[in-house]
Write the structure tokens for this entry.
Amino acid sequence: MSLKPKIVEFVEVWPRLRCIAESVITLSKVERAVWNTSFSDVYTLCVAQPEPMADRLYSETKIFLESHVQEMLNKKVLAANDAANANSTTTTTATVGSKPDLLQRYYTTWMEYSQGIKYLHQLYIYLNQQHIKKQKITDTESFYGNLSSDAAEQMEIGELGLDIWRLYMVEYLATELVRHILEGIAADRASNGSLDSHRVQIINGVIHSFVEVQDYKKTGSLKLYQELFEAPMLEASGDYYTNEANKLLQRCNVSQYMQEVIKILEYESKRAQKFLHVSSLPKLRKQCEEKFINDRLGFIYSECNEMVSEERRQDLRNMYIVLKPIPDNLKSELIQTFLEHIKNEGLQTVAALKGENIHIAFVENMLKVHQKYQELIADVFENDSLFLSALDKACASVINRRPSERQPCRSAEFVAKYCDTLLKKSKTCEAEIDQKLTNNITIFKYIEDKDVYQKFYSRLLAKRLIHEQSQSMDAEEGMINRLKQACGYEFTNKLHRMFTDISVSTDLNNKFNNHLKDNNVDLGINLSIKVLQAGAWPLGSTQFITFAVPQEFEKSIKMFEDYYHKLFSGRKLTWLHHMCHGELKLSHLKKSYIVTMQTYQMAIMLLFETCDSLTCREIQNTLELSDETFQKHMQPMIESKLLSASSENLSGETRIELTFDYTNKRTKFKISSALQKDTPQEVEHTINSVDEDRKLFLQAAIVRIMKARKVLKHNALIQEVLSLSKVSFTPNIAMIKKCVESLIDKQYIERTANSGDEYSYMA
Amino acid sequence: MADDGENSVDRPTDADGSKPEKMFTLKKWNAVAMWSWDVECDICAICRVQVMDSCLRCQADNKRDVLSRMDCVVVWGECNHSFHQCCMSLWVKQNNRCPLCQQEWSVQRMGK
């Protein structure tokens, strides 16, 4: 065969070609040789001399396809119910008997035709690729719609075939087909999805033919499917759902209804997969949710309160599944109810607390509530973030609730004390403490007044460190690191410094003892000194407390100070005698005792080395103690019976005598001091100092913001201040206003001239 | 050993009875002291931060490392005025006088 263009007569070639085309499209057997000849026939016509006959071939083929499809419609699809089908579009009830067959016939014909047209497309490949491609508008052009799509534009043969099918077959049968399909789907629903699979295949095939017939289109290929079938299908389904929902309401209570709805949703989504094009699945699902859930919210919520308050997990789980797909704002009722429920339970568990260990009960009860609902959310609500944030809100509101306007919220104090209890020496094993501390952070995170917590925590930490009450330094450090993680460096800066001071002091003591050894000095006492950094420790007012140091201590102090000054320069040491304590060996009694007591108390005892009886005034003057200090330290000595007083009230003239008949079963004991207990004044002092710090923080924040912004409206300023202070506390607006006022007085900022609620920064 | 009503006391003696032992002996002393820079004014006049805290710059730079604040020491001039060493070392680049008394700045000692 030659590829050279030659002169051909169209009427000679076309009938031959047409014959083959018919065989191809009806899927009849075509010999390889014949196929090849036809293939070259197409070529010859397209390149014919003198004029190519491609256009003529195209239009003849079009006519052929049109008549073929019409013939199929009449002979194959409509054949069986001839009379009735002639007016099938108008009479719908008369054709009942033949209905299933229409779908069946259409389906078989379509299967044949769609396959055939693919082959025919192959046969015409030369025409398609050489002749028609050239005319085709490019993608970009079609995308921007520059060219008005020309109705007479030539299509590739495959597309042409599909388009003709649409025109002559689908459009003609559409109403009837859709009606049959919907009946088929309805039958499937009625039989609980047990329609036989052959039938399902047919319906599925017919539905998909609406898509496939337009598949070649670049845009809007689903349009036919959507207009022709999807819209009526959704409407019919919607009606069906409404109807079903009404039926369910008749016979079900809420929990049954939800169970049924979940089942129906599942069935419907399986059904949709079985029949429909994928693009319809979410639409049908939405329709289903709309009718069963959105439209029935009132009913579903009607028992919400009971379900939540009785914690009926199965019901709540169902309710969550049912409500999950609908928009968030419609779920809010469930979430709000849930939140209130947690809040109530939380308030109940902490409201009645009192007594010594209130802080332990507070934290542990709150933890129990938190854990319980965290577990419930995981179990029932799939850890949905909406519910988790409801839990957070509920916990935060319980924890930060003030018992009344006047009283401050004590949670920060409780949580700090709880940590203290854990970190103090006890018999609890380390792993358990560690776990509890981690849990404690959970509660800590809800506290708004983190600065209050920090104040309490640092005071308690100071006490533990100074009095060596910590269970383990690792646990202490671990806790500080946890806080740092939660609140950042600023928050734990001072805590870290305290912690480092103690470890530096341990080193220092070792070095100092070695130094003594090297110089052959024996102080005769076991000396351990902690050197704290001024500023880092919450020691309250460190105003100088007068004290004449007994000469027994002097040597130690001198040695240490000399050593310290050699080691460091530019530093001065202040001795905090009210925080020192030691052990004194008593040898004046039958047995000798070793007693732990405060430094002042040791000093008092030492005075009795040389005499057995002294007046209070004498003692006070010798030691230069203030009244308050003296009373505070003398009282426990008398209570311990090591000393006795001549009168109950310790006045200047009261004689203090050494008791010589003192006995105690233990040879080592401690004189309890009221010092280490937290007094109410101390708590109040802590809270007041927090207020002072807050004011400073707010002023600094305002100056910083104003410096950056130069000019700012009042409300914008408040917002920025709030966001800066969020980490450590939530200031009240009045306090911020006061700070603004005082900064205006100090001329850091001023009100702008033209507006009352605007400030500007004064450099 | 203690006779009631008597003012004189039997002082316990050592086993060999030669030297009287003290009635009260210090066995152990856990002392607490606080150190601070030995300065006249505890606020650095240059950065307006307490000299016990690290200077503004160091606070901003070394947020992560707690121990690094140890490096932010204090320096005393011959005039006995004191500042953060960091602040002063920047200051003298501009003006080699004490910011408080305008005397020629020379370091008297350095904190450690």
Summary: Chain B is about 15% helix and 20% strand. Helices of chain B lie at 56-61, 85-94. The longest strand of chain B covers residues 24-37.
